[in-house]
């Protein structure tokens, strides 16, 4: 079972008040060589590819056009996004998972301290297969059996007599890998049995798109832009509408990660405010992603599910 949910209060609808920290444009100290230059007007962003595909590319383009400030998107995964903001290597991060906490469940582990997680949108975990796979639906029980090696042939899922080739993310703390363990297994230490172990969600999605026997889990915001089929889960199809109203069960927030220090950085604050503004929300919606404040039902359902998980 999960040992902590101390970070739940961070996932709340909190209006425009932001605790933003970082470097000032003028007289800015160096962040391991990453000072923000007033002349260049560049903010560096690192984070999960799912966040990038969900809204960051569109937001970065619109923001540069509006303000002249370039958002340099580096990718690299949720863990990189969190930890490089914490270490001062980038200005802003993107994450599709919460912080990893210590055993007492109160404070983040050292590599992830000193950051603020600000939910700005919603994503969902989706089960993807090759577009020609005849399967259309899968249950949570079947997903657990699949990931623990109990289902090895498509005939066990009502499909053809062929071996199942499961694709998973490397390690246990990636955005998708940790979210699967949290939402499907309620166990962050759950081991998976798989033939294909991929370095990131992009190669995972591309691999399944080419493999008729492939199956795996990725983010809705990324997978919907690939040539793959997304399966229904317990009869519910993943979609913008189902994520927005809380009807689809495997959802999680997408965060902007910012430094948490006493002095605000004007340019970081301006960018985050833009993402959370009505103009920013329109861009997020037009990209096919649900802004965080649009999905109150989703937020309340997730909070209730987490409270049940810890016996509250």
Q: Which helices and strands appear, and what pairs or packs with what?
A:
Layout: E1 42-47, H1 49-67, E2 70-76, H2 78-86, E3 92-95, E4 115-130, E5 137-138, H3 140-147, E6 165-169, H4 175-185, E7 196-198, H5 201-210, E8 214-219, H6 220-223, E9 228-230, E10 232-233, H7 240-244, E11 251-259, H8 266-276, H9 278-286, E12 290-291, H10 296-309
Please name the defining characteristics of this protein.
312 residues, alpha/beta, D-Maltodextrin-Binding Protein, domain 2, 2 domains, 10-stranded mixed β-sheet, two-stranded parallel sheet, 12 strands, disordered C terminus
Number of strands: 12
Q: What is the count of distinct domains?
A: 2
- CATH C-level label of the largest domain: Alpha Beta
The CATH superfamily of the largest domain turns out to be Periplasmic binding protein-like II
What do we call the CATH topology of the largest domain? D-Maltodextrin-Binding Protein, domain 2
The secondary-structure element order is EHEHEEEHEHEHEHEEHEHHEH
| Total DSSP helices | 10
Percentage of β-strand residues: 15-25%
Low-confidence residue ranges: 3-39, 308-312
Instruction: Give the termini separation.
Output: 14 Å
User: Taking Cα atoms only, what radius of gyration do you get, to the nearest Å?
Assistant: 19 Å
What does the largest sheet look like? 10 strands, mixed
Class based on secondary structure composition and strand pairing: alpha/beta
Helix percent band: 25-40%
């Amino acid at each position: 079972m999960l040992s902590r949910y101390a970070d739940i209060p961070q996932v709340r609808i909190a209006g425009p008040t932001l605790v933003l920290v970082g470097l000032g444009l003028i007289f800015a100290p160096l962040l391991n060589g990453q000072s923000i230059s007033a002349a260049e007007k560049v903010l560096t962003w690192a984070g999960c590819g799912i966040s990038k595909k969900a809204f960051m590319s569109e937001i970065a383009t619109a923001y540069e056009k509006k303000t002249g400030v370039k958002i340099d998107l580096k990718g690299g995964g949720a863990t990189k996004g969190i930890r490089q903001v914490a270490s001062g290597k980038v200005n802003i991060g993107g994450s599709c998972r919460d912080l990893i906490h210590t055993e007492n469940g109160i404070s983040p582990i050292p590599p992830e301290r000193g950051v603020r997680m600000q939910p700005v949108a919603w994503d969902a975990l989706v089960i993807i297969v090759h577009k020609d796979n005849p399967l259309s639906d899968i249950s949570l029980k079947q997903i657990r059996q699949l990931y623990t090696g109990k289902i090895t042939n498509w005939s066990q899922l009502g499909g053809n007599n062929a071996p199942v080739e499961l694709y998973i993310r490397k390690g246990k703390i990636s955005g998708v890998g940790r979210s699967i363990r949290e939402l499907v297994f309620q166990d962050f230490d759950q081991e998976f049995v798989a033939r294909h172990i991929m370095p990131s969600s992009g190669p995972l999605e591309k691999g399944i798109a080419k493999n008729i026997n492939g199956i795996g889990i990725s983010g809705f915001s990324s997978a919907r832009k690939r040539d793959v089929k997304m399966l229904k889960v317990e009869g519910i199809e993943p979609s913008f509408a189902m994520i927005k109203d809380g009807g689809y069960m495997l959802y999680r927030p997408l965060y902007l990660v910012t430094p948490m220090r006493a002095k605000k950085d004007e340019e970081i604050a301006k960018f985050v405010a833009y993402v959370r503004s009505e103009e920013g929300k329109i861009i997020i919606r037009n990209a096919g992603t649900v802004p965080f404040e649009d999905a109150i039902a989703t937020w309340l359902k997730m909070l209730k599910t987490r409270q049940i998980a810890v016996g509250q």
